[in-house]
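Retro notes (design track)

What went well: tokenization of the new backbones is finally stable.
What didn't: we kept losing track of which sequence belonged to which structure.
Fix going forward: every design gets posted as structure first, then sequence, in one message. First example under the new rule, 226 residues:
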């Protein structure tokens, strides 16, 4: 593991030890203008049938909670960031569609495989409240839910946070580094100028969490972004 990535890991460990920016903070929040009924009448997805030998299932079989969000912004990265910021409510974690996130962060990747019990994925862009631009440490956040999102906090078993990697970190994908944290494990890696932190509760087997982290593909290849 390179020196820069070791520093990133160390910073994450310090934050976890101090209780700052816990792995579930913010990702479970609903902004005041969330969805405006985008999920009305949407039934929970059925059992994901295709489970591979590693015990994981395709992420394409999971419901994206913010797909088809009302007022979805279309444009380049600057236009999307400004448009999503304009519809914020009381939180800097603003509900955003996977298409908006892919536009705002063109190099972002997302797991192509998930534990088969995952039924929903929530997605948010995260802002610096002073500048109105994306937060450097956490620019996007995703929740992986066993139940309909926001109906029970314990229903969220995994959280993926994506931020900006240090400028001197190579763009090629780094190795995935597991770090034990309170309540579970966090997988850390960098790629394409971004830093990824995948938190998995202790109920998710560590080998599954690692394989989920290793399975990333461009977000634009997954449902809701084409």
């Amino acid at each position: 593991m390179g020196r820069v990535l070791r520093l990133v890991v160390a910073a994450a460990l310090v934050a976890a030890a101090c209780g700052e920016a816990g792995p579930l903070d913010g990702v479970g929040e609903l902004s005041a203008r969330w969805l405006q009924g985008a999920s009305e009448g949407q039934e929970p997805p059925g059992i994901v049938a295709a489970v591979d030998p590693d015990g994981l299932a395709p992420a394409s079989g999971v419901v994206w909670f913010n797909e088809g969000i009302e007022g979805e912004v279309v444009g380049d990265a600057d236009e999307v960031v400004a448009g999503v910021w304009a519809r914020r409510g009381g939180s800097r974690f603003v509900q955003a569609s996977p298409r908006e996130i892919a536009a705002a962060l063109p190099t972002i990747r997302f797991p192509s495989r998930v534990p088969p019990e995952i039924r929903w994925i929530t997605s948010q862009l995260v802002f610096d409240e002073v500048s109105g631009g994306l937060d450097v440490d956490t620019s996007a956040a995703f929740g992986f839910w066993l139940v309909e999102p926001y109906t029970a906090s314990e229903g969220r078993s995994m959280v993926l946070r994506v931020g900006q990697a240090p400028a001197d970190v190579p763009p090629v994908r780094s190795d995935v580094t597991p770090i034990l944290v309170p309540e579970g494990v966090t997988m850390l890696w960098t790629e394409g100028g971004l830093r990824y932190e995948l938190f998995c509760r202790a109920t998710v087997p560590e080998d599954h969490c690692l394989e989920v982290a290793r399975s990333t593909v461009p977000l634009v290849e997954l449902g809701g972004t084409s």
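Added context from the reviewer: The first helix runs from residue 3 to 18.
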